[in-house]
Amino acid sequence: MHVTSSVREPLITGGKTLKDVTHDISRQVEAKPSLGWLLAFLFSVGVLLLGSIALVATLWEGIGMWGLNKTVGWAWDITNFVWWVGIGHAGTLISAVLLLFRQKWRMAINRAAEAMTIFAVICAAMFPVIHMGRPWLGAYWALPLPNTFGSLWVNFNSPLLWDVFAISTYFAVSLVFWYIGLIPDFATIRDRASGIRKTIYGALSFGWDGAAKTWSRYESVALILAGLATPLVLSVHTIVSFDFATSVIPGWHTTIFPPYFVAGAIFSGFAMVLTLMIVTRKVFHLEDYITIGHIELMNIVIIITGSIVGIAYITEFFIAWYSGVAAEQYAFMNRMFGPYWWAYWSMMTCNVISPQLFWFKKIRTSIVATFILSLVVNIGMWFERFVIIVTSLHRDYLPSSWAMFYPTISDIGVYLFTFGLFFTLFFLFAKFFPVVNMAEIKSIVKSSSEKVIK
Amino acid sequence: MTENKKTYWKGLEQLTNDPEFVKNAEKEFPDYVPINGGNEEGSSRRDFLKLMGFSLAAASLAACEAPVRKAIPYVNKPVDVNPSIPNYYASTFSSGGDYASIVVKTREGRPIKIDGNELSPINKGGISAIVEASVLSLYDKQRLAGPHINGAKSDWATIDSEVKAKLAAAGTVKIVTNTVISPSTESVIQQFSAAFGGAEIISYDPISNYGITKAAETSYGTAVLPTYNFEKASVIVSFGADFLGTWISPIEFARQYGQGRKISKEKPTMSRHFQFESNLSLTGANADYRTPIKPSQSGLAILALYNAIAKQSGAATVAGGAIEITHLDKAAKELLANKGKSIVVSGSNDPNVQVIINAINDLLGNNGVTVDFSKPSYFRKGDDAKMNQFVADLKAGRIGGVVFYNCNPVYDFVKGAEVAEGIAKAKVSVATNIAMDETASLVQYVAPDHHYLESWNDFNPRKGEYSLSQPAISPLFDSRQAQDTFLVWAGATTNYYDFLQKNWNSTLFTAQSETSNFQEFWDRSLFNGVYSVPSESAPVANISDVALAASSVAKAYKSDNTATELSIYTKVGIGNGTFANNPWLQEMSDPISKATWDNYLTVSQQWANENSLKMYEGETKKAKVTIGGKTLVVPILVQPGQAQGTVGLALGYGRTKAGRVADGVGVNAYELADSSKGFTNFDVTEGVSIEITADTYKIAQTQTHQTYMGREFVIQEATLGEYKENASAGRYHPKVYKEGEFVKPSKISLWKGHKYSQHHWGLAIDMNSCIGCGACTIACQVENNVAVVGKQEVLNRREMAWIRIDRYYSSPADATSNKELEVAADNPEVTFQPMMCQHCNNAPCETVCPVAATTHSSEGLNQMTYNRCIGTRYCANNCPYKVRRFNWFKYHDNKDFAAVNVAQNDDMGKMVLNPDVTVRARGVIEKCSMCVQRIQAGKLTAKREGRKVNDGEINVACASACPTTAIVFGDMNDTNSKITQMLKIQEETISAIKEVNEERAYHVLEEINVSPNVWYFTKIRNKDKSEA
User: Fold this and answer.
1) Which of B20-34, B339-353, B394-408, B727-741 has the lowest mean pLDDT?
2) φ, ψ at B187 (rounded to 5°)
3) How far apart are CA B736 and CA B328, in angstroms?
4) DSSP H helices in B262-327
5) Contact B904/B887 with Cβ under 8 angstroms?
6) Secondary structure (3-state) at A345
7) Shortest Cα–Cα distance, B740 to chain A (Å)
8) Residues A64, B925: C-beta atoms closer than 8 Å
9) Which of B298, B337, B422, B842 is 20 to 30 A distant from B986 in Cα terms?
10) Cβ contact, residue pair A70, B708, below 8 Å
11) 8 Å CB contact between B582 and B141
12) How confident is the model at residue A280 (pLDDT cuts 50, 70, 90)?
């Protein structure tokens, strides 16, 4: 029994018909690239190329191109890795968890969010490979492949190996989930298209025939994949947090990390979804599909996760004090008042204080404010990983080894490279793939209200 | 298909039956395609294809094939060279008067490592960083490859005839040398001098101890150095003598001192050490009571000490010495209480001061016991007065011929500039220097000597003590031993080797009665490397007028000098600068400042505060130092412990012609020293002006955080009094709560624990006898092919050292907050902690490596498999001791590092590499292996001989280099091993977790229970109470 309350606001405004939906979404794919898109795309490719200089330099000369040293063995590389993985989480949460919870508002944004997940995971997965001293070997030695080297095998005790499994599973499931969702829409575009475009979209749609049986299978697969993806939302960042939590370094060795990292991931992921959606909605005129209601709901998720993260920060401090472990206490005091105090306070401001502004309805329904705050949250979450990684390492147990980390141009360049890669992929997606799930969204064109509001 | 009647035409030509077409219709290929190579001119298509195919195949084959590296076996194998089996030769290191009896390890005919000779009664197996590193100087490509005349290459015949003729016609000839402690060399030089009209031999030393020899002449009638014995001294008082680091014979003194600092429950006594000095020296860092004083006060302080002792001993006091110096009265009291068991030394080069020192030791009854003039030492024979006279003569053009025998006065004599100017005025100038250095580049004839590892020689460092050096390799260049050169020029027909043997035959052999066969005597001496003639010690009567010396001292020193004073000192690594072109020494982190690749002006913290200079992560400002018209611009280093109102600057830098490693590193401080009083005075007390410039500069330090933040889990220390009451004084016992009680961290573990059924290797490090000299760090670098990365990479905090010595200053006594703890006390207590891989039984690095490249051995070692490592650096991050090193770049065969990482880049330098240890590739982690190659070699020897490994048979490089035996390596499963006894491991167990009953032994970071196999012994200071 499905009851729809009549007082609910419609999820899609502007009195769209099913045909309008198809037209509005497919239009973007079928039309010639707009000037705005072209400029943005070329800019992304430019950033990608610029960043690739740093990447090539690192691969050619060695990790010494970065600012790392004997004391700080990870900095921007793993910060970026965790940051990108975290961003990816929102997509999965929206498409899988919200699907299971039957949150229909997700339909307008899940396609783009999932695409973001995939591209973010691609960017993230780059770092564990390129941060290796010998990536040409590590790229496959880190996998449990049968080999002729004798009894060589991977070390299942290592959280880095768990990362390999976590990230690859996550990427695979997300990709399949995303692609399955795309199939009916590809078919829609195929049906509207002609010529080479028809062939390409025909191939992409895997011969979708729109039969009732096909739809039934489609729904079952979506549900199964949602079921598979849901634990991943929790597990991936939990495992990423094990990289730190299972270590002996003060500031890393913390049992609170798994939930704290997951909350942080969702927090940053939603912020990134907002950043992207606000732009896409504007550029592609999708205001009727991605409404203020969406933005407000996502902002609420941001308040909740931001507050969880804030509580986690405070808990860490309490536990450091309560543990009575001198090195642990120092590590946390050093975060606040040590040489990297500015990173810590940037993190605190961006992650804990600024999202609290969303308690004001005016702010959480303001597009400009949301856009700015979403950027702030992403900056804050980058600093969170930087604080955890660098400030813990740079002053650990033996003061003789205490050192500072200063990023080099290559550190910045490689980070830029991932931005270039991410936006290049995202713009390609936005142009050539339907950015909103037409098939699904058609199911809510009318369900939210008995009467379509003209 | 129905039959097709249609006709298809190949073209209009066929349709029209064009005659041209018909002619060619039956041919498959048209004529103009050359198919059979019928064409005479040029190559055919087939040839072309053949050539193309061949070229392609050849190019692909060539591309596939790896470059051929030939390993050519011996046609006739030398009888004592077995591939992969090292040979050891006893030899002697001597540069100027710096002396060490050594054992040279050679592999396939190449010297690759130098160890101390345990048979030597002087250095007793100890060694210093400079001696360790000297093996690389052998392969220095900046050495001269042959004789040179006026800077151009020449040959020996030409140089011999020209020099002989010219010297004979030159008139006055002078021979300039650093201290020569070789009796045979001395007679060769005598012979040479006689051949040229009795040429005068002028001896000087870069780091002069003329004051002591001159004072000995005044006090006892002979101008020699005494033999010091710090082991027999219960109370040691030193006025600016850095006897553990750089003063006269530091290896020997360190060994003696270390013995006096060893402490146990059975022998709870140790020497008490007072140090009065301006710069914080290595010796001062080890002192129990250290008082910073100005150089201008030191003479008065010594007078005051004399008076205090004289008053109590009933001797006449002298005028002067009214000065308040902290701890001086206490020192006097303790010296008096330990008459005949104490020692007072001074680093001053002022003869008058040394006369007073002699008088103090006489009053204390130390003469003949701890300061033995009846057993003179010959480490320094330099005569500053004669050298100054020589420089004046040279400048005035009064010298016709000058011969520099392996010395470089242009660089390392205070009047170097005048020497440089004067050389041109001599008619003939000759040098035997090994490289085209500052002096050699100015002379007409350079007849390069062999490196000492290519030479025969003998040495007489001390009365009754002899040693030999023998070539460990054939000469690498077209050089000739200087002694042979002198013999040739003197017209002798014998070579130096025969001369040497004859000399020993006629002197030492005839004086002994053990054997009548000279060959046997010679072989045994050569095998041992040393030969001793026993002699008795006796006090020598003091004939000096103390009051006279005292009045000069009282006049020359002031208690209230307000001017800034400069105290020029010597660094442990670079020494007098002779070996500055050795990258290992340049990159060795200074034991005190932890700086590499530079010298700098050390200033006190107070001075820095007054001038609002803050040093952060090595970043500092430069200062202009002006003395009497000479200005040097040097970076400033804030040095806790520096006496107020003084600054320090190290010698040995600012080389201009040493080679590509040293040239342009730092500034030359020799030229700032003062020689106005007839001796080289490295304390400049007047006319020093310091001006901070706006230029910032970065000093590459390997450690930038100075204090240990009051962390008891890192440094555990106590005073002697506390230790006597309670052997576990100063120990920190962390406890972890478990099921209702607090237990030792080792009682709680997720690990099943390793079992070591055979050996269980471990290290015990006594922080009490570790003096921080850093000999171990260079020994490790040589043994394990550790890369040199250069100044920029040290600044990037990426030095590769496998063993480092953490140097911690104490914070001010009242410091409690983190910010306060970060600052060192103005006159801090210093603790040295050698830190290397701790070989944890519960190793955090091992669990996190995704590819299991670092694993645990069945003998307790944490092993690193380089060729499995993919370089995630997770292990380095998770190492609580931060001892893992990552190859950020390719350091070998890389032109970016060729200038600094000589041993892994040029063909000559590579000869020094230890073939038993891999040179690590880019992108892998490396770390201390506990010299696993030595362990394997030792086990194989034992296996081949069908026995167990004996304790002491295997030793790691750091432990064997340690002059104070502060590091002990051994098998903790062997109940009789030294380490087991030291740690008092009673029960026999193969478990990784051993119950250690020695109260002083502790694990650094015990509370995280990584269970290291390296144990540290608490630092015990012989102080009445603990104070910062």
Assistant:
1) B20-34
2) -70, -30
3) 46
4) 282-286, 295-313
5) no
6) helix
7) 17
8) no
9) B842
10) no
11) no
12) confident
User: Hey, is the C-beta of B894 within 8 angstroms of any chain A C-beta?
Assistant: no
Interface contact flag, A68 B881, Cβ < 8 Å: no
A166 touches chain B (CB under 8 A): no
Residues 117-136 of B with CB under 8 A from A: none
Nearest to B850 among A70, A74, A161 (CB): A161
Collect contacts of A337-340 with beta carbons under 8 A, ≥24 apart: A337/B818, A337/B819, A338/A391, A338/A395, A339/A394, A339/A404, A340/A387, A340/A390, A340/A391, A340/A394
Which distant-in-sequence residues (6+ apart) come within 8 Å of B2 by Cβ?
none
Distance from the first to the final alpha carbon of chain B: 113
A164 CB neighbours in chain B (<8 A) are 850
Q: Does A156 touch chain B (CB under 8 A)?
A: no
Question: What domains are there in chain B, each with its CATH number?
Answer: 1-69 (no CATH), 148-207+385-464+475-496 (3.40.50.740), 210-377 (3.40.228.10), 561-701 (2.40.40.20), 717-1021 (3.30.70.20)
Any idea what DSSP says for residue B278?
A: S
Question: Residues 660-719, chain B: which have Cβ within 8 Å of A?
Answer: 703-705, 707-709, 711, 713-714
pLDDT of residue B64: 65
Q: What is the pLDDT of residues A196-211, one digit of tens each?
A: 888 999 999 898 888 9
A135, A158, A397 ranked by CB distance to B880: nearest: A397
Judge whether A72 and A394 are in contact, CB under 8 Å: yes
**A398, A408, A410, A411, best to mutate vs chain B, most B CBs in 10 Å:** A398
**pLDDT at A388 (0 to 100):** 93
pTM above 0.95, yes or no: no
User: What are the residue boundaries of the structural domains of chain A, listed by start?
Assistant: 18-144+154-443
Q: A272 with A87: CB under 8 angstroms? A: yes
Would you place residue B897 in the very low, low, confident or very high pLDDT band (cuts 50, 70, 90)?
very high
In this structure, are residues B524 and B353 in contact, taking their beta carbons and an 8 Å threshold?
Answer: no
The pLDDT tens digits for A96-129 are 877 777 777 778 788 888 898 999 999 999 999 9
- CA dist B514 → B501, B518, B521 (Å): 18, 10, 8
CATH class of A18-144+154-443: mainly alpha
Q: Specify the pLDDT at position B28.
A: 64
Q: Is the pLDDT of residue B69 over 80?
A: no
Q: How far is A287 from chain B (nearest CA, A)?
A: 46
Residue A449 pLDDT: 46
B796–chain A Cβ distance below 8 A for any pair: yes
Statement: residue B539 has pLDDT above 90: no
Mean pLDDT throughout A259-276?
A: 89
Query: What does the pLDDT average to over B2-20?
Result: 73
Q: List the one residue out of B679, B352, B677, B373 whose CA is nearest residue B547.
A: B352
Q: Do B851 and A325 touch (CB under 8 A)?
A: no
B442-460 pLDDT tens trace:
999 999 999 999 999 999 9
Q: Yes or no: say if B489 and B163 are a contact pair by the CB < 8 Å rule.
A: yes
Q: What is the DSSP letter of B110?
A: E
Tell if the CB–CB gap between B796 and A134 is shorter than 8 Å: no
Q: How far is A70 from chain B (nearest CA, A)?
A: 5
The answer to whether the beta carbons of residues B243 and B265 sit under 8 Å apart is no
Interface test with B, best of A65, A82, A248 (most B CBs within 10 A): A248
Q: Tell me whether A349 touches chain B (CB under 8 Å).
A: no
- Whether the predicted pLDDT of A284 surpasses 80: no
Q: Report pLDDT for B910.
A: 92
pLDDT: is B567 or B677 the higher one?
A: B567
CB B1018 within 8 A of CB B1000: yes
Give the integer Cα–Cα distance in Å for B979 and B974.
9
